[in-house]
Design brief:
Layout: E1 11-12, H1 24-37, H2 47-66, E2 75-78, H3 81-92, E3 98-102, H4 107-120, E4 123-127, H5 137-142, E5 148-154, H6 166-176, E6 179-183, E7 202-206, E8 218-222, H7 260-276, H8 278-297, E9 302-305, E10 316-321, H9 326-337, E11 339-340, E12 342-344, H10 349-355, E13 362-366, H11 373-393
Parallel strand pairs: 1-11, 3-4, 3-5, 5-6, 6-7
Antiparallel strand pairs: 2-8, 7-8, 9-10, 10-13, 12-13
Helix pairs in contact: 1-7, 2-7, 3-4, 8-11, 9-11
Length: 394
Amino acid sequence: MDLSFDSGKIIYLDNAATTFPKPREVLQQALDAYAHFGVNPGRSGYDLCMVAGELVFETRKVLATFLGGTKPERLVFAANATDALNLAIQGLLQSGDHAITTTVEHNSVIRPLNHLKRDRGVELDYVPFEAGGIVDPDEIARRFKPNTKVVVVNHGSNVIGTIQPVAEIGRRCRERGIVLVVDAAQTAGVIPINVEAMCIDVLCFTGHKSLLGPTGTGGLYVREGVEVRHTRFGGTGVHSAYPYHLEEYPYRLEAGTGNVLGIAGLYFAQQYLAKRGLKEIYAHEMELFARLQEGLEHIEGVTLHGTTSLERRLPVLSFTISGRDPADVGSLLDVDYNIAARTGLHCAPLIHQQLGTGERGTVRFSVGPMNERAHVDAAVEAVKEIAAEVQAGA
């Protein structure tokens, strides 16, 4: 494999897929930590093992605090948000239960729920979003039934960037004793989250997007009093003679050796985020995003899908060019302009069905913390040229 590819030439606008590049200092600190004590944590009592275990615990603690949690042991590590959502959804629902979700969801939610509906007889309702891409909390509440066990909501859309009113949904769920599971894949690390204040029972997150950690990291925070059933079993390094998987958190939902290198990356990424400041990062991204959106919406032949409001919004937008397949536009951006964008349905087919883009999807630009004004201006100019070629050939 050729590892000499120069990524520095690429204008990267696919941060909703993963933030790139990662802060170099975070990568170096994680690698240094792993080189010094990258052993199996919690399995033995020698010094290296104890230091590795301390790193894992400290990362639980800082992430739990970052997300507004109060119990570090309730912060469970997983491979990514999809893994965390599967742990939560499959560990909370069983035959005869009713679940509610929305048409804004990613396949990380849609597919586990559909499998439970098909394979275990779980009842399932999808609530559509309204104008502006927002789901009405009252519409979710109207779907409550005596057997409603779980509501699963995407906090921030990876297609149109809208931020859902999670706290309002959470209050309605809490009043009825219904568990609220929130998919924070797009929001953790870019806007403040407080699981206690927002009445979130289970928060699922990924580490490789706005948390600026490596791929293969993520997890879930489970509120005290909410119990997620085991769905996988194995070693934890604790009470090895006990014949069943442990009941207590975090071991309850963790099986086998964790991703120590990735967890180290999350720990040092938390330091980076604290130093740079969440508010400042979001302001930087949204300033660039506003410039990007304004430039695109004035190009003839370009249609922006979803709201153009900058309120309750992530720096993510989807667009199409009349007369051009989104996949072709993505290829042109890559080959002719060195711009990385995402095309297609973005693993969220229901939102595209509601937007009317369900057949071929859209082109998606998503701004990240490492982007600059020149990147945005280059993207606008590239789209303008591609759209002009269509108009000239019409």
